[in-house]
Design goal:
heterodimer; A: 251 residues; mainly alpha; 6 helices; 80% helix; globular; B: 221 residues; 86% helix
C-alpha cells in the first residue's frame, strides 16, 4: 500500500473508520498496561521515592512532542512537494495534539521539579527548548487560524513547519549552550549510563501507548477536518446555486 | 544584480522620503530599553548585569514591529505583483527587500544601541562587541523576519501573529548575541559567539530566501 492509496478522501474515510476501533482499543490496552506497570510494578527510586513515577508520563509526553512535530514536518513536505490532499489535513490535525503533549511534558516536568529542585520552574536546557517548541506549535496553529482560504493556509503553515524543523536543531543547540553558560550542572539528572529493565519496560510500554493514542486522536481529528471541509464545500455550493437561480429574476 | 540594486535603492528612497517609520522603530527601541531601569530600580550593578540582555530583547521587539512594513505596502499598491512577475528570481527580490529592511531598521538600531549601552553603564570594549554582535545578528533577524512577514501578508491580525511566528525561531540569535556581550563583559573572548552568529547569518542568507519566496508565491495566488 502506498501513499496514493489514501489520496482519495472518501477512501481514507472508509479505511480510517474501519481501523479506528482497533487502534483505539490497542491504545487503551497499552496505556492501561503501561500505567499498571509504572504505578504498581516498577520499584520506587531509592532517592526520589514514588515521585519518579511521574517519569512514566513525562518522558513519553516529551518524546511525543518531538515525534508529532517530526510527523508534521514530513506531512508538510509531502503536501508541498506532491500536493497530497491528505497531508496538510494530517499536519493540521496533528498540531493541537503535539501542542498538548508538549504542554503535558512541561506541566509534569514542573510537578516533578517542585519536589526535586525545590522550584516549579527551572531554566533547564530541556525545559527551555520544550517551551520554545510549544511556542512553535502555537504559532503554527495561529497561522492556520488566521488565514481564511484553506489552500493558502495549508501552504503557509507547511512552509512555517519546515522552517521550524530546520531551526529546531539550532535552537536546541543554542539553548544547551546558553544553559551551560548560565547554569553550572546543578540539576539532578535522571538515569546515568543504564536504566534498569524494571523501569525501561514500563517506560517503553507507555511510549507505545502514547503513540497509539496519538494515532487514534489523529484519525478522529482528520475525519472531523475532512467532514468540516465537505460541509463547507456543500454550503458554498448551495449558496452559489441559490445565487444563480436568483440572478435572472434580479436581472 | 542591477535589479537587486534597483530594488534596494527604491526601498531606501521610499524610507528616506517617508522617514517617520524608521524614527518610530528607533524610538520604540529606546523606550522599551529605558523602561527596564524604571522596572528594576536604578542600581548600576543590576543594570550592568542585565544591560546586554535588555538591549538585545528590545532590539528584537523593535525589529518585529518593523516587519509588517516589509511587504505590506508593496502588496497593497500592487507593486509586489510586478516584482513576482518580473524576470528576476523571486529569491533575489526577497534578498534585496531584506537588505533594504536591514539598512532602514537594523542599521539605525545598531547606531542607537551603544547610546543605550551607556545608559546601562556598559564599558567601551563591551559596547564594541555589542555593536559587532548586532551587526552580525540583525541582518539575520531581517532575513528570518521576512519569512514571517511573507507568511502573514495581507492578514488582518498579521502584526501580532508575525511576532508569535518569528520570535521562537530567532532565539538562537538572541542567545549568541547576548552571549558575545556577556563574554566581553566578563573578560573572556567573545570570538566563538561572534563566529556562531556569523554562521547563523550565512545559513539564513542561504536558506531563508527560498522559504520567503515560497510564502510570497502562495500569498499572491
Amino acid at each position: 500500500m502506498n501513499l496514493h492509496f489514501l489520496a482519495n478522501p472518501t477512501r481514507f474515510q472508509r479505511w480510517a473508520g474501519a481501523i479506528l476501533p482497533w487502534v483505539a482499543t490497542l491504545a487503551a490496552l497499552t496505556l492501561g498496561l503501561g500505567l499498571w506497570l509504572g504505578l504498581f510494578v516498577a520499584p520506587p527510586d531509592y532517592q526520589q521515592g514514588d515521585t519518579v513515577r511521574i517519569m512514566f508520563v513525562h518522558v513519553p509526553s516529551a518524546w511525543m512532542g518531538l515525534f508529532v512535530y517530526t510527523g508534521m514536518a514530513s506531512a508538510s513536505a509531502v503536501a508541498l512537494i506532491w500536493k497530497h490532499p491528505l497531508a496538510d489535513v494530517a499536519a493540521k490535525a496533528s498540531a493541537p495534539i503535539g501542542a498538548c503533549f508538549t504542554f503535558l511534558a512541561l506541566v509534569t516536568g514542573s510537578l516533578w521539579g517542585k519536589p526535586m529542585w525545590g522550584a516549579w520552574w527551572v531554566w533547564d536546557a530541556r525545559l527551555t527548548s520544550m517551551l520554545v517548541l510549544l511556542f512553535l506549535y502555537l504559532g503554527y496553529m495561529a497561522l492556520w487560524d488566521a488565514v481564511e482560504d484553506p489552500a493558502r493556509a495549508g501552504k503557509a503553515a507547511a512552509i512555517l513547519c519546515l522552517v521550524g524543523a530546520v531551526d529546531i536543531p539550532v535552537i536546541k543547540f543554542s539553548v544547551d549552550w546558553w544553559n551551560t553558560l548560565h547554569q553550572p550542572a546543578s540539576v539532578v539528572r535522571l538515569g546515568g549510563p543504564t536504566i534498569h529493565a524494571s523501569i525501561l519496560v514500563p517506560l517503553l510500554t507507555m511510549i507505545v501507548g502514547f503513540t497509539l493514542y496519538y494515532l487514534t486522536v489523529l484519525i478522529v481529528r482528520m475525519r472531523a477536518e475532512l467532514a468540516a471541509r465537505r460541509v463547507q464545500a456543500l454550503r458554498q455550493a448551495r449558496v452559489a446555486s441559490r445565487e444563480s437561480t436568483l440572478a435572472p429574476e434580479a436581472g | 544584480m542591477s535589479a537587486l540594486a534597483a530594488i534596494v535603492r527604491r526601498d531606501l528612497a521610499i524610507a528616506l522620503r517617508r522617514g517617520g517609520h524608521v524614527g518610530v522603530v528607533v524610538a520604540f527601541f529606546v523606550l522599551v530599553a529605558s523602561l527596564f531601569p524604571l522596572g528594576v530600580g536604578p542600581e548600576l550593578a543590576v543594570l550592568r548585569r542585565i544591560g546586554s540582555g535588555v538591549i538585545w530583547v528590545a532590539a528584537l521587539l523593535a525589529a518585529m514591529l518593523s516587519l509588517d512594513r516589509l511587504f505590506q505596502a508593496d502588496f497593497e499598491d500592487g507593486s509586489l505583483e510586478q516584482l513576482v512577475l518580473a524576470p528576476v528570481a523571486l529569491e533575489f527580490v526577497v534578498l534585496a527587500k531584506a537588505l533594504a529592511h536591514w539598512l532602514t531598521t537594523g542599521v539605525p538600531l545598531l547606531l542607537a544601541a551603544p547610546v543605550l549601552g551607556l545608559l546601562f553603564d556598559l564599558e567601551r570594549g563591551t559596547l564594541l562587541v555589542m555593536v559587532l554582535a548586532m551587526a552580525l545578528g540583525s541582518p539575520a533577524l531581517s532575513l528570518m523576519g521576512a519569512i514571517g512577514a511573507a507568511l502573514t501578508l495581507g492578514l488582518r491580525r498579521g502584526g501580532v501573529l508575525v511576532s508569535l511566528l518569528v520570535l521562537p525561531l530567532v532565539t538562537p540569535i538572541l542567545i549568541f548575541g547576548v552571549g558575545a556581550v556577556e563574554a566581553a563583559a566578563t573578560g573572556t573572548p567573545a570570538r566563538t559567539h561572534l563566529l556562531i552568529l556569523g554562521a547563523l547569518l550565512l545559513a539564513a542568507l542561504a536558506l531563508t530566501p527560498w522559504a520567503t519566496a515560497a510564502a510570497l508565491r502562495s500569498a499572491m495566488e
